């Protein structure tokens, strides 16, 4: 019997935050302990942004220490609360000072491509021409390898006015990403975080899945004028690859 390749996605731990009414460290520890109790050991872990809330060295050191309990390879990308250079320093990531944190890793049956969607100093995302050109080249380098694209801002319309107007990825940038993806059919799934709840959509015929936060969750509303939080369980996602097919499982954490 074939064995599934398992990639666990944690997102938005916001270590150092005080605005959510919960302890973000306790939330991340609980998620990590839940992952450790899974019946099947994950092959790798992805953290899709906002590891820290203020991007201090102490916050990143705390994140590293907690994630180290998993004892599997961990791959991170920046969120709008992160500092690119601090993230590079603490997680030994490629690239030069001040540039987007973007890289690809070969995980055997899966290629994971990390795309920086952040706009430093702002909550909203951005995929400019340079980043899309980088992605086009990176995907072109391995056209036959099944690929997952990871980013912080999900390339979807949430339907929530404050999210879409002030914190989302602009429609033109989503269209630009879709045009790149149309040239690279090996990309089978797009995963993200940022919105602090599970959301699914599609782009260029690919599933787009936003993961819940290990900290606090966002309230589902099409009419609210402000981003609101909700007292719901935190969670994470397990992406399973078996015989060339993806399935994604959202696991709540008590």
Polypeptide structure, described:
The chain is α/β, with parallel strands linked by helices and 254 residues long. The protein has one domain (5-253): Purple Acid Phosphatase, chain A, domain 2 (4-Layer Sandwich). 25% of the residues lie in helices and 25% in strands. It has 6 helices and 13 strands. The chain has helices at 24-36, 57-67, 84-91, 129-140, 161-167, 171-182, and strands at 5-10, 44-47, 74-76, 103-106, 111-114, 147-150, 187-192, 199-203, 206-210, 217-218, 229-230, 234-242, 245-253. The strands form 3 sheets. A 6-stranded mixed sheet has the order 4-5-6-7-9-8, with helices on one face. Strands 3-2-1-12-13 form a 5-stranded mixed sheet. The two termini are 32 Å apart. The model has no long low-confidence stretch (mean pLDDT 96).
């Amino acid at each position: 019997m074939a064995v599934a390749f398992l990639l666990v996605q944690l997102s938005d731990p916001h270590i150092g935050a005080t605005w959510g009414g919960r302890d973000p460290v306790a939330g991340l520890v609980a998620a990590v302990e839940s992952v450790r109790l899974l019946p099947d050991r994950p092959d790798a872990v992805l953290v899709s942004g906002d590891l820290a809330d203020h991007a201090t060295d102490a916050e990143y050191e705390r994140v590293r220490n907690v994630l180290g309990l998993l004892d599997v390879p961990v791959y991170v990308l920046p969120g709008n609360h992160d500092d690119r250079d601090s993230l590079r320093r603490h997680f030994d990531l490629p690239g030069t000072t001040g540039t987007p944190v973007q890289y690809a890793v070969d995980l055997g049956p899966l290629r994971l491509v990390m795309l920086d969607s952040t706009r430093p100093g702002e909550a909203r995302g951005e995929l400019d021409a340079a980043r899309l050109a980088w992605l086009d080249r990176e995907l072109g380098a391995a056209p036959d390898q099944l690929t997952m694209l990871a980013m912080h801002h999900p390339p979807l319309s949430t339907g929530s006015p404050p999210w879409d107007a002030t914190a989302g990825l602009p429609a033109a940038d989503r269209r630009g990403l879709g045009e790149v993806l149309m040239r690279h059919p090996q990309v089978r799934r797009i995963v993200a975080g940022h919105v602090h709840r599970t959301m699914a959509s599609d782009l260029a015929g690919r599933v787009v899945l936003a993961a819940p936060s290990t900290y606090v969750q966002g309230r589902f509303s099409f009419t609210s004028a402000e981003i609101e939080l909700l007292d719901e369980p935190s969670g994470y996602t397990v992406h399973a690859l078996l015989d060339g097919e993806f399935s994604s499982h959202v696991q709540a954490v008590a």
